[in-house]
Write a structure and sequence with these properties.
The complex is a heterodimer of chains A (238) and B (534). In chain A, strands 1-3-2 form a three-stranded antiparallel beta sheet, with helices on both faces. A three-stranded antiparallel beta sheet of chain A has the order 4-6-5. Chain A is built from eleven helices and six strands. In chain A, helix 2 packs across helix 3 and helix 5 crosses helix 6. The model of chain A has no long low-confidence stretch (mean pLDDT 85). Helix content of chain A is 55%, strand content 11%. In chain B, a hairpin with a 5-residue loop joins strand 8 and strand 9. By secondary structure, chain B is an alpha+beta fold. Chain B has a four-stranded antiparallel beta sheet with strand order 5-10-7-6. Chain B has three domains: 153 residues, no CATH class; 154 residues, Methane Monooxygenase Hydroxylase, Chain G, domain 1; 143 residues, no CATH class. Classes of the chains: A mainly alpha (238), B alpha+beta (534). At the A-B interface, strand 3, helix 4, helix 5, strand 4 and helix 6 of A face strand 3, strand 4, helix 10, helix 11 and helix 12 of B.
Chain lengths: 238, 534
């Protein structure tokens, strides 16, 4: 297949824009957006560049996203980066796994639907999230059998202890040694990633359209079920 | 048996379901007891009062934050319910009513209504209020609540008639009142008409919001109803109301000409004229609203088509359930958390690392102080809230410099009854940091003083008590600052007047080693000024 020089240049511009902004909105850059959506060649070129950069380029609604693949440590977050971003310095693995559990709980609370969209609630208050986390942790530690916990050292009972050890303050605490502060840090991180809207004044968490789309099209897509299998340590035979 | 009377059963169930949910969410909640709303009728009354308040705010298109709702409940309680509730409790009660009862704690509400055509239960979506993010005073992020279309329907069904009939009825009454020349009543009518159009416009916007969120939750039937209503509204109103406006304008003109040429209008006619003007203004707004409905109508159509198109792709996607497939398994064994980042990583983007360009080192250097300012701004700019807070902090700090300068002048003038700038300079003995934090500030304060050669404190106080001033203004205002200083310093308490004049014939006063806004050290010559206090 042959490409015009124009097409290649445009695709490179689009790709660089994506590297810089990680998303391309129709309203912000209409000419690039049009080039991508209306010219099959350009779309192919951009997708291919994305592939080389260990990423996937997808359009959801009227936004084109650059989505780092799971093993992309440069454009995406490696486990280590994530720990630095989410936990206070000098924190243990326990804190990191706890933070992951918080994010996962948040996702489950919002995206538990079977209908046309997986989204099941409009908003969530920070207090409700805290309660939910606490309940789930208790549930988890009740399930676990002691032997395997001792063997692996990664256990709900540990996380529950770490979580309950955090002080609970009146609303509005930012110290990382409080439950609220711990969650706050995670929420601010998610907000910066444009995944949630977090209004501190009202203790209100809402999901963004981006997260809705990512959950519906990408994370919960059967096509990507292999990620779940990988997490669960099951060999993917497909 | 012919059961055709059950045809619109699901539609009825939507109404009934709305009420059912309201009561289900409210009854048997012990929270009520904390606020001394013990009986269910008391609870129901306050819920609807709050709903009506949200409607009022939505109609006015004004933000409706939790603080507003709390304020409303507080006033209502003081005036009518007379429960022992503190401010804070009112806020908690508002929170409870809005977020728990009306919003079902954020969880989507479905009422199962039986569909006798298909012989099965169907999910009917119910919501009363929605929320969105607003910026109050341009910078503070808050959640603002608004009434959804269902919410409007529930409230309208408590008093008003079905929406599409409403406009016609209001219009008829309006016409009658105009014919009978009872303009005061016609004013209310035209306001009602305007509100109707406003509701229709908001219905469209709400529909667009819902479609954007999830086009599937928006049924074709909803779409059809709203389009029909739109067409009804658009088709009739535009022309008719332009006609009315012409008519009213002529009336206003006749009145005005009469006023100028024939004889002074009596009080009744003046009132009529005033009312007619209000009617005219509202009619113009009605016509504007009509235009926006027209525009939004087409936007809605385009949006719905587009979203449905993209949805048709989405329905092809098969999804798994997050809770069953992943979360529950992790709950059974925490070890799976080890690689959980694998699942969430596509969501997260890391900032790319920067590369240092060595050429930067040979760029022309800017003055350090300027550079510092640049740097500061870069650091702040990634957190909007912080940026705003710091801006306000800066302004406050600056304001306090202004006040200090003024305070030094007032204190010295008060001590001696009157003093010249050069005498102040001598008394300060070389330490000018209080008097002259920067050249610019000092200059502004003195110029302001000279511009107001006599400041009468008594007069100022009277003025202030008559006007509601916004005390949160963070700019230097001479009068405001003087009053504040006098109020907060008992030494200055008895000051009645401040006089300032420039002594033209004296030698200039010279200050050295002064800071300026640009960071340069300056030396200034200023003309001699005399301050006196009475």
């Amino acid at each position: 297949m042959s490409y015009e020089l124009d097409e290649i240049t445009l695709s490179q511009s689009i790709f660089y824009y994506l590297i810089e902004n990680r998303e391309l909105k129709e309203d912000d850059e209409i000419s690039l957006y049009k080039a991508y959506t209306e010219n099959e060649n350009i779309m192919q070129l951009v997708k291919q560049q994305g592939n080389i950069a260990k990423s996937v380029i997808e359009r959801y609604g009227n936004i084109i996203y650059l989505i780092p693949k799971e093993d992309n440590d440069y454009l995406g977050y490696s486990k280590k980066n994530l720990k630095t971003a989410l936990c206070k310095s000098g924190s243990t693995d326990k804190d990191y796994y706890l933070s992951q559990f918080v994010i996962l709980t948040l996702l489950v609370e919002f995206y538990d639907g079977h209908g046309s969209s997986s989204k099941t609630r409009e908003f969530m208050r920070v207090g409700d999230l805290l309660n939910s986390i606490s309940d789930r942790l208790k549930e988890g530690s009740a399930n676990a059998d002691l032997e395997s916990e001792e063997r692996d050292g990664l256990a709900f009972s540990n996380m529950l202890e770490a979580f309950e050890a955090l002080r609970s303050e009146e609303k509005g605490s930012r110290a990382k040694t409080t439950k609220e502060g711990f969650i706050y840090n995670i929420l601010v991180f998610l907000k910066k990633q444009n995944l949630i809207d977090y209004i501190e004044e009202d203790e209100m968490i809402k999901t963004t359209k981006k997260l809705d789309q990512f959950m519906d099209y990408n994370l919960l897509n059967k096509k990507n079920y292999h990620r779940v299998l990988a997490v669960l340590g099951v060999e993917d035979n497909e | 048996m012919d059961v055709s009377f059950l045809n619109k059963f699901t539609k009825r169930m939507k109404f009934v379901g709305s009420y059912a949910f309201l009561f289900k969410n409210s009854i048997a909640k012990t929270t009520w007891k904390q606020y001394r709303f013990e009986d269910f009728f008391e609870q129901t009354n306050i819920i609807f009062a709050v709903l009506l308040y949200v409607m009022e705010q939505s109609l006015k298109d004004e933000p409706c934050t939790m603080d507003d709702i709390a304020g409303f409940i507080d006033i209502l309680n003081i005036q009518s319910f007379r429960k022992q509730l503190s401010n804070q409790q009112c806020k908690e009660l508002g929170d409870f009513i809005v977020n728990v009862i009306l919003s079902n704690e954020g969880k989507v509400m479905y009422f199962k209504g039986f569909d006798f055509n298909d012989s099965q239960y169907k999910d009917i979506h119910i919501s009363f209020i929605g929320n969105k993010i607003v910026y109050i005073d341009g910078d503070i992020r808050r959640t603002s609540y608004y009434l959804t279309e269902d919410g409007y329907n529930v409230l309208l069904s408590t008093l008003e008639i079905e929406s599409n009939m409403l406009l016609n009825i209001h219009e008829m009454i309006f016409k009658l009142h105009i014919e009978k020349a009872s303009y005061d009543k016609a004013v209310d009518d035209v306001k009602n008409i305007f509100n109707q159009l406003r509701i229709q416009l908001q219905r469209i916007q709400e529909a667009m919001r819902r479609i954007k969120q999830n086009a599937l939750s928006y049924s074709v039937l909803d779409y059809k109803t709203i389009l029909d209503d739109n067409l009804d509204t658009i088709g009739e109103t535009g022309k008719k109301f332009s006609g009315y406006r012409e008519h009213i304008r002529e009336k206003v003109k006749t009145f005005e000409e009469q006023d100028i040429n024939i004889k002074k209008l009596d009080k009744k006619d003046m009132d009529n004229l005033k009312n007619l003007r209000i009617i005219e203004e509202y009619l113009s707004r009605v016509i504007d609203e009509h235009q926006s409905i027209l525009r939004n109508h087409f936007e809605l159509k385009a949006l719905y088509t587009k979203e449905l198109e993209s949805l048709s792709q989405m329905t092809l996607i098969k999804r798994f359930n997050l809770r069953n497939e992943l979360f529950d398994k992790i709950l059974r064994d925490a070890r799976y958390l080890e690689d959980i980042d694998f699942f969430t990583r596509p969501l997260l983007n890391q900032e790319a690392e920067k590369t240092y360009n060595i050429n930067k080192s040979v760029e022309i250097q800017k003055p350090i102080r300027m550079k510092l300012n640049d740097d500061e701004e870069e650091i702040i700019s990634f957190d909007e809230d912080q940026l705003e807070a710091e801006k306000i902090e800066k302004l406050k700090k600056k304001l306090s410099f202004y006040n200090n300068t003024l305070l030094v002048i007032l204190l010295y003038a008060k001590k001696n009854g009157g003093i010249t700038l050069s005498e102040i300079k001598e008394s300060l003995n070389g330490d000018y940091t209080e008097l002259i934090p920067t050249v610019e500030i000092f200059k502004e304060v003195v110029i302001e003083l000279i511009k107001n050669p006599t400041i009468d404190i008594v007069e100022l106080r009277r003025e202030r008590s008559e006007h509601i001033s916004d005390s949160s203004v963070l700019e230097f205002q001479l009068n405001e600052s003087i009053l504040n200083l006098i109020d907060n310093n008992f030494i200055l308490e008895r000051i009645k007047k401040v006089n300032t004049y420039r002594k033209v014939d004296s030698l200039p006063v010279i200050f050295e080693n002064l800071n300026s806004d640009t960071g340069r050290i300056k030396r200034i010559h200023c003309s001699e000024v005399y301050f006196s206090i009475e």
